[in-house]
């Protein structure tokens, strides 16, 4: 019930699947691949292999974000102010439909909404967040949210409860407000070049809920080695 993987494939997909049974897809955030491409990925890997995906950046990030450089088709002048921050706009709604199609193609159970630090807890942003998650067709997906920046813990907890969201954190820097629904993303304690020590990963085991599904994804340069060590510790527990 503890799903362990990496943020993106550090090895060819079929090789990766020999060691780990879950991955967080990054391409769906920057520029979603063709649906046929994602369906092919799903067919290549074992039936029990699980994909989670990052929601397309048009939902979460405004058009000034440098990540928009990876869009194949730039937004028009009319579309640019409609993008990001969960705005009640056609651009955001269409981006959700694309994200949903990607999730279906990969038979994903979980979609991550990663917000930039510039998405602050203003009244407008909170209202847009509530309107978005209250209005979309979830199709029984787990929706997980990674706020960054100065968000009050109680506000995040209230939003997660009312909108049925999992709180995404790096557990070595932030405590989750949804401890029974954990989605951990580990970026390296001293930057992305960091490699976790065995004792640190043993401590991480204690943060995971019992008899509940949880995700642990590594997003550092040693992501594969750390994920495999953590998997071994979990199996030996």
TrEMBL record:
This is DUF72 domain-containing protein. Signal peptide: none annotated. InterPro entries: DUF72, UPF0759_sf. It comes from Larkinella humicola.
């Amino acid at each position: 019930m503890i799903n362990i993987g990496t943020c993106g494939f550090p090895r060819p997909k079929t090789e990766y699947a020999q060691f780990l049974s879950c991955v967080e897809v990054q391409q769906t955030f920057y520029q979603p691949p063709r649906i046929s491409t994602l369906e092919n990925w799903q067919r290549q890997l074992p039936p029990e292999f699980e994909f989670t995906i990052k929601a397309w950046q048009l939902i979460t990030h405004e058009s000034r974000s440098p990540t928009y450089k990876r869009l194949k088709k730039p937004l028009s002048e009319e579309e640019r102010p409609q993008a990001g921050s969960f705005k009640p706009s056609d651009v955001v709604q269409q981006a959700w439909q694309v994200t949903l199609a990607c999730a279906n193609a990969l038979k994903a159970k979980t979609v991550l909404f990663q917000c930039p630090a510039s998405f602050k807890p203003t009244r407008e942003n909170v209202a847009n967040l509530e309107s978005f998650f209250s209005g979309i067709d979830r199709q029984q997906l787990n929706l997980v949210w990674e706020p960054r920046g100065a968000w009050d813990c109680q506000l995040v907890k209230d939003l997660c409860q009312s909108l049925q969201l999992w709180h995404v954190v790096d557990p070595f820097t932030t405590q989750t407000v949804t401890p029974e629904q954990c989605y951990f993303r580990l970026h390296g304690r001293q930057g992305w070049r960091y490699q976790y020590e065995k004792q640190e990963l043993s401590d991480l085991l204690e943060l995971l809920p019992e008899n509940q599904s949880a995700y642990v994804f590594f997003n550092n340069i040693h992501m594969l080695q750390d994920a495999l060590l953590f998997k071994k510790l979990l199996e030996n527990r």
